[in-house]
Write a structure and sequence with these properties.
By secondary structure, this protein is α/β, with parallel strands linked by helices. It is 34% helix and 21% strand. It has a 9-stranded mixed β-sheet with strand order 9-10-8-11-12-13-14-15-16, with helices on both faces. Helix 10 packs across helix 11, helix 12 (338-349) runs parallel beside helix 13 and helix 15 packs parallel to helix 16 (440-446). The two termini are 37 Å apart. 54% of the residues are buried.
Length: 447
């Protein structure tokens, strides 16, 4: 965050100051007052059950010096009619002040956004000061919060951008036009909202359409819907994938006993061997995408591979943990889609163990395709796991698809109880579901 006093912020966002207008914000903005930093800004929203404005005092005790909200609070406050629009206006202004020395990357896709963002952040951070989306704050509130973490010293800004409707990503690129846009894939995530994969492709293509003049598009050569997006940009295009035509190609993929990939990355000019400390063969393609983005700003392929060798992922993304009883937990409980569920099951299948147990919960936002998609994931799981624990009513078709290998349980408590009685030394257990299923509770109970 560049230093701004409340009077300046009020002018930028079209608000008024309640309190001392000379108070200066010097630290990032937060949506959760418990995460406030010394000198920071707390952005308050009224909720269905609680009003964020009521927690301004708590945010102040932790370090916030001011609030952006819609009514007076216990701290000096910039009062606006539309807090979301004001937050976006403030972020757009801050980035505009830094734009001449800042290169902006944006990442989207039906799955793999956060992992690729984390890998790309590792690549860029070794080259210059880098700010990136924390976790997956990838919507109309999360993107401006991430933008506001930029400082005068920042050279690279990495933004994850998600969508639930056509037009969502276009709105985000109007806040800041990316210099490099990565489109990973077009899958089934949020299919219930979009209605079809073609509609999802239109939404993802907005990241390419929103590029800054002569910005570079990084596209998946293995996904026809993504590759077709090269026709909508006049700027440079780099592709990644397994295909022979890919500019950054993945070859010779191998997995160790813990499911961690090693592979060759090849371009027209270089060939390097890469190893990742991450679980899952799909991470090789994510790494190729990150390496291609690095090439777009002059980072050599070997430097990118070295940086990714020590990368770490955001919380609850295929975290591998040893349990006290000698079993191994693969915690991928943050979110799920049919595509990411398959990738996680593939990862489970590559890990050495006595038995492989997949604890799978609801995959949400699939609309009318929900039962069919759950059934298909269940069948896929049956070929890769010895036992499939299907959690909750929405996941019942998943159990049906898995057949005789399935155990259907009513809820998270029942899943925990089953695991406590059946999970033993040498077993490997995957925990995976959409965020709304809260299967992190199951993983926490095992830990």
């Amino acid at each position: 965050m560049i230093p701004l006093n409340l009077g300046e912020i009020a002018t930028i966002v079209g608000g008024i100051v309640d309190g001392d207008s000379t108070v200066t914000v010097t630290a990032p903005a937060v949506l959760d007052g418990r995460q406030a930093e010394q000198g920071g800004l707390f952005v308050a929203f009224p909720g269905d059950k609680v009003d964020g404005h009521d927690y301004a005092g708590q945010a102040g005790q932790i370090g916030a010096v001011a609030v952006l909200g819609s009514r007076p609070t216990a701290l000096p406050t910039v009062i606006v009619e539309d807090t979301s629009a004001a937050l976006q206006a403030l972020a757009k202004h801050v980035i505009a002040q830094l734009r001449d020395r800042l290169t902006v990357f944006a990442v989207t896709g039906s799955q793999g956004k956060t992992s690729t963002k984390d890998l790309l952040t590792a690549v860029l951070s070794d080259a210059a000061p880098t700010v990136a989306t924390v976790g997956n704050l990838n919507n109309g509130l999360g993107v401006p919060i991430s933008m506001l973490r930029s400082e005068p010293s920042t050279r690279f800004l990495v933004l994850e951008m998600g969508a639930r409707h056509i037009g969502d990503i276009a709105a985000l690129t109007r806040l800041v036009a990316p210099d490099v846009s990565l489109v990973l894939n077009v899958g089934h995530a949020h299919l219930g909202e979009f209605g079809s994969r073609d509609a999802i492709a239109i939404a993802k293509s907005e990241l390419v359409q929103g590029l800054a003049p002569m910005g570079t598009a990084i596209l998946n050569a293995d996904d026809p819907r993504v590759l077709a997006m090269r026709s909508i940009t006049s700027g440079p295009v780099l592709t990644f994938g397994l295909s022979e035509s890919a500019d950054v190609r993945v070859l010779d993929l191998a997995m160790d006993r813990l499911g961690r990939p090693s592979f060759t990355l090849r371009t027209a000019d270089a060939t390097v061997r890469a190893e990742l400390p991450l679980v899952g063969a799909h991470q090789a393609l994510n790494a190729a995408a990150a390496a291609a983005a690095g090439l777009a700003v002059g980072i050599p392929l070997d430097a990118a591979a070295n940086s990714m060798a020590t990368a770490s992922l955001s919380r609850w993304r295929l975290e591998l943990r040893e349990l006290a009883n000698g079993a191994t937990l693969l915690n991928d409980s943050y979110n799920s889609s049919p595509g990411s569920a398959r990738s996680s099951l593939d990862a489970l299948a590559t890990i050495d163990g006595r038995r492989r147990i997949a604890v799978l919960g609801a995959i949400l936002e699939l609309g009318e395709a929900s039962d069919a998609e759950h059934h298909a994931v269940g069948a896929y799981a049956a070929a890769r796991a010895d036992v499939i624990v299907a959690v909750g009513e929405v996941a019942r078709p998943l159990a049906a698809g898995a057949g005789e290998r399935a155990v259907a349980v009513a809820d998270n408590d029942a899943a925990i109880d089953w695991l406590r009685h059946h999970l033993g030394a040498g077993d490997v257990v995957l925990v995976k579901a959409s965020r709304g299923a809260h299967l992190d509770e199951v993983a926490d109970a095992l830990l």
